[in-house]
Each structure stands twice: as structure tokens, then as C-alpha cells.
Amino acid sequence: MLKEERQQFILNEVGIHNRILLTDIADQLNVSVDTIRRDIKELHAAKQLKKVHGGAVSLGFNNYNPTGKKIYSLEKKSRIAEKALELIKDGQVILLSGGTTNLELARMLPPKLKLTCFTPSLPIAVQLLGKNNIEVIFIGGRLSKDSQITVGGSAINMLSEIKVDICFLGTNSIHPMEGLTEFDWEIVQMKKAMIHSSRKVVSPCISEKIGSLQRYKICGVEEVDVLITELEPWDVKLDAFKNLNIQIL
Amino acid sequence: MLKEERQQFILNEVGIHNRILLTDIADQLNVSVDTIRRDIKELHAAKQLKKVHGGAVSLGFNNYNPTGKKIYSLEKKSRIAEKALELIKDGQVILLSGGTTNLELARMLPPKLKLTCFTPSLPIAVQLLGKNNIEVIFIGGRLSKDSQITVGGSAINMLSEIKVDICFLGTNSIHPMEGLTEFDWEIVQMKKAMIHSSRKVVSPCISEKIGSLQRYKICGVEEVDVLITELEPWDVKLDAFKNLNIQIL
DNA sequence: TTAAATACTGCAAGATTTTGCCGTATTTTG
DNA sequence: CAAAATACGGCAAAATCTTGCAGTATTTAA
Alpha carbon of B19 to those of A16, B26, B59, B106, B112: distances in Å? Predict the structure, then answer.
């Protein structure tokens, strides 16, 4: 592997994750840590990233979600986000709902990808603001303190005026019979509106949430075009969905 | 976890909550309190926060900005924001434009003050989200990368539908004859709309910007009801404004 | 084409940093 | 004032960094 390639890879990883561990990279590329260390040293000198003890971080941008809430099941969500990335093509217009899985997706969007991205989520907007090739359009409205997305008539109104290629709908509960359900009524309204504004609905959902039920119904399973989970395709939990949609690992 | 990440996390927490407890952070990050103590010590030495018994607090002025841009003249802006606070009464509906002075104002809003607050600024929205008694309504639209506020037709449209008690209009240039001017055309449009949506227009403005001129005109001085600056009332720079408005130290 | 020069990579030894823990001061609180 | 919480300094283990060196690959030049 050429040095150039390696360094490109490193920059890419930093772009996606905002931080890397020396050992991780060395492991992934099957070279010694010394080599990576030297690469990082060079990239640091070239001001492409910031070298820190144990690895490197991206320049000038914050590594954390702005509101500092803890994210659970980050590994799984990261895997799901990775899969979700494959659905996005250059130049598309997408809609990201709230939720930490989508935040992870936002973080992982490659720096070179050109997109127009609608979102009602404050943390996601902050994250996307750091990506120069992404045009961010924020859905205005009243900010809900705990979900950190905008809700209410104004937001729904704004949603009614758009039509996007793909909507990534962070999902709290999905059930083979009952469809998507949600705890918060205002968010239900938002998600309904998002579905109406999208040609394709993708539902990233960690396994814990599959099969669960909550108070209010958003829509039936038939409205969802793609379900993304971290489970293997043959997992029993997915059987009930097999006659309906596309599923991905 | 990298030291860098940890420290970023700490700064984030301080930026949002204005204060942190040593034990809280240690708990959240699963490291010993000693480690956090050392981090805080370093950050204190780097003047990123103020170390206190049991934790840390943010410095007198705000340096939380998600994109890591530098803020100049913080002292002055802090003083101006303090003055601006006096104009706000419990239960009012206010509109905060972008800019670091307004960000500072947002940070200084007392936690018990009940307000409804409109803003097109992403950093301000993040800051306000941490205050439980403030209802935040975000003006949606396309996010401008460098100013970090929403702009464009959609945002202006949303502004046209509201009427607030006070608008705090972050000001780039104010001139006794030419009025308020701005460099960016899109922001001009936004500010015009904000003025129309407000019963009272307040212009917080550091002395460097008084008397300066930029490319596009927003409005005449007569549209501004209050000018807030850090200068003493008898300063020569203010003479030209004396027959027009209220001025505060 | 061949030989020399140069660049790249992995390894190892010693230096440095990071981190948790412990005992002892210091501060806070009732 | 006394108990509890917090701060501080030193210590040791683990991780990471630095540096020099040697073997291999790549480029340059004759």
C-alpha cells in the first residue's frame, strides 16, 4: 500500500469520525503503529489534522454532539449509519429526522459528498454545518427541549412544502403489524409530515427497538421502504418483516 | 478515549450548563475524578474555563461556539449584553439575530426568566436550549456556513408571520447618517425582515463598529429604538446620535 | 542495465505521558 | 467545631512517543 493511499485513508477516517486511534488505524491497514505515527506526524505538519497523544483529531471542529447527551449503543448505531450511507448518492436531497442514529449518520457523511440536507434536529444541523459540500436547510419551529428537534405547526407547514429523495426516519419502535409508533404526540405529527415529504422512507433502527410498541401510531410498516438494522439478515426478529420490505444487515 | 476528546466534552458541558461538577463528568466518562481534575487544571491554565472547588464554571463570557470560531472583543460584548438584559421583562417575546454579542446575551439570560425567544442563529438556539424557562422557536431556512444563521426566502417568510416585543439586532456597522449597513446581501434581507417583525429594535454594537460603513444598507438610524454600546455616554463617537435615540453605557 | 542514492518500513531501547490510587492537606457544610 | 467532601502531591503500571538502525523497495544517474 502506498503512503499516499494510507494518508488519504487516515484523512478520510478523521473526516468521518472526527477522531482516530493510532492502534485502530494500524490494525485496519496492517502496518505498524510507527508507520501510522509518522503519517500522522506529516499530516499534522501539513495542517490536515491535529496530532494528539494516542491518535489524532480533526481540526477546528467539536467532537461531541452539542448538547452533550450520552449516546447508547453507539457501536450498533455506527454500523447502521454505515449501511445507510450506501443509499445516499451524490447530489441528492435528503431529510434527516432527529435521533442519535441519524446524528451518527450525519457525522459519517463523507466530506466530499455533495448533498442538500433538510433536518429539524439541532445537533444534526450543527454537525452538518462543518461539512462544506452539504447545503443544510433547517426546518424551523418550536424547539422541543428533550428531543432537540423542532415541532409544531410551523415546522409541519415547512415540511409540507418540500419533497426529498430519501428520508432517514429515526425510529423509536417498529412492529411488524402495528408499524411505527412513538411516545411523543408532537413528534408523531412531525414524522408523519416527513413521510409525506419523501419519495423514499428509510428506517434505521437498532434491534432493541424492533418489535416494540409505544403509545401513538405514526404509520404502517408498508410506508417504510427500507429497514436498516445491525442484525444479521437471518435473525429471527426479522422474519416477520420478510414479506414486506428490503432489509439490510 | 483520547484526552483531547475528554477535554472537548468538558468544554461542551461548561458551554451549555455554565458549570460542571467534577464527579458528574468523571461518572459520565467512566474515568477517575483525578483525571478530570487534571483536565480541568489544564483547561484552566489555558483559560478555557474557570476551575472552582468541586468542578468548573464558564468564564465571564461565552466561548462556546460549536464551530470553534474565535470571538473578538468578548469583554466589551459581555458588558453590552449585560446592559441589554435590563430591557427584557418576564414573559416577553423577543427576537435574537445572529452574532456573538447576541450569543453572549443568550448565555446571560437568567435561568428563571420566562421568555419566548425567536432566533435564526444555530449557536444561540443551542445555548437557549439549555434554559428550561425559555421557549425557543427557530426560524427555519438555509443555513449560511459562515454566519451560522438561516437565510433565504423560507426564513424571511417565517419572519413575516410573527410580531415580537423586542428585536436584538446584532449590528455590523452603524452610521449616524447612513444607518445600519451590512456586507452580506442575504443577511441584509434577513435583518430587514426582523425589523419589520418587531415593535422595538435594539442594536447592541461595540464601539469599533460605530461610524463604519459597509456595502449594503439595512435601514436608517430612525428605525433603531435603542443603541447599546460599551462606551461612556459622553464619548465623542456618540455625539452624532444624540438627537435620535436612547443610548446606554 | 547496473550501481548508487534515496525513501519507506519495522523493530527495539529508553524517555515521556497518562492514569488510577493512596495518604495527607484543605475547604465546605451543618 | 467536626464530619464530609474535595484538592494535592507522589508513586507505579501501562500506554505512547522518540530515536536510531537495519533491511527492503524505489528512484536516479551513468
Answer: 30, 14, 10, 16, 16
Distance A47 CA to C14 C1' (A): 30
Residues B130 and B84 reside in one and the same domain: yes
Let me know if residue A65 belongs to a domain: no
Domain count, chain B: 2
A94 within domain boundaries: yes
Tell me how far CA of residue B87 lies from CA of B51, B52, B105, B120, in angstroms.
32, 31, 12, 21
Q: With b meaning 16 or more CB within 10 Å and e meaning fewer, what string describes B34-58?
A: eebbebbeebeeeebbbbeeebbeb
CA distance B107 to B80: 13
pLDDT per residue as tens digits for the range B96-108: 999 889 988 998 8
Verify that B170 and B121 share a domain, yes or no: yes
- Closest listed residue to residue A167, CA positions, set A194, A145, A143: A194
Q: Check B13 against A143: CB less than 8 A apart.
A: no
- Which residue is listed with cell 502496518? A31
| Contact of A119 with A95, CB cutoff 8 Å | yes
Closest to A138 (Cβ–Cβ): which among B67, B130, B143?
A: B143
Q: Are residues A130 and A192 in the same domain?
A: yes
Identify whether residues A106 and A163 lie together within a single domain.
Answer: yes
In terms of residue numbers, what domain contains A24?
3-57
The closest of B159, B247, B173, B182 to B206, measured between CA atoms, is B173
CA B58 and chain centroid, separation: 15
- Please compute, for residue B25, the number of CA atoms within 13 A of its CA located in the half-sphere on the CB side: 27
Which residues of A fall within a CB distance of 8 Å from B194? none
By the 8 A CB rule, do B46 and B127 touch? no
Number of neighbours of residue A45 by Cβ within 10 angstroms: 9
User: Which range is most confident: A3-12, A14-23, A34-43?
Assistant: A34-43
Q: In 3-state terms, what secondary structure has residue A30?
A: coil
Sequence-separated (6 or more) residues with CB below 8 Å from residue A157: none
C-alpha cell, A109:
457523511
| Lookup result for grid cell 468544554 | B11
Amino acid identity, residue B13?
E
For residues A196-208, give the mean pLDDT. Answer: 93
Can you read off the three cell numbers belonging to residue B231?
A: 462606551
**ipTM here:** 0.75
Same domain (yes/no): B133, B162: yes
C-alpha cell of residue B104: 453572549
| Residue A188 and residue A218 share a domain | yes
Q: Strand D footprint at Cβ < 7 Å? A: A 21-23, 33-34, 37, 41, 52-55; B 21-23, 33-34, 37, 41, 52-55
